[in-house]
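Morning F.,

Quick status update on the modeling queue. The single chain you submitted on Monday has been processed. Sequence for confirmation:
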Amino acid sequence: MDWNDYDAALFDLDGVITPTAEVHMRAWDKMFNDFLRDRGVDEPYTDADYFTYVDGKPRYDGVRSFLASRDITLPEGDASDPVSAETVSGLGNRKNDDFEQILAEEGVTPYPGSVALVEALATRGTKMAIVSSSRNAAAVLTAAGMIEHFPVIVSGKEAGERGLAGKPAPDTFLDAAAQLGVPKERAVVFEDALSGVAAGRAGDFGLVVGVDRGVGEDALIANGADVVVDDLAELVEETGVTA
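Structure tokens below.
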């Protein structure tokens, strides 16, 4: 890729900048399997369910999507529901508690290749934003020591407050580009989730880069990625910035 063609980089967070996708996966696994076990459901929640129904989506959408796959219907509830509530919101809040506990106990270290690309783009003067379905984006960036690079953060929290549709809709990415003052055609989307690359393609951005952290190159391309890399370090040389 030629960075002269682009003025902004819009990064998903979990699985792209930080390995918090692994923390999210563990938290989803604990919450859903505890829930299924309590209801006497034999078929467990698996990593395949995470990639198919949950990955990249706003939290409550992920709950709703997975439950539908098991023909389970719960009341919606609302964001104030306690973690003990058997509602879509209650399960989502339960998962978030599990996530925050794991993050507090173990912390988070960003991917070295992602740090290298972000620092190169900062040196180059490329505008950057985080576009994440997670409501914990700012806390994760702070814990990772990366928040200074991202003056614009469109997380699940901001999206919910402002009524922006979550991924795979392109709304949050379009909002981030607008906040940076960059036309969508001059912005690059970086995503590891199928719903994320689909959002990038739906928004007709200049380039959609899939980051393969396990979902597979073919699936990322089929859902909207123009190119796929295993690590963002592969794109540092193209910035023209040398260490």
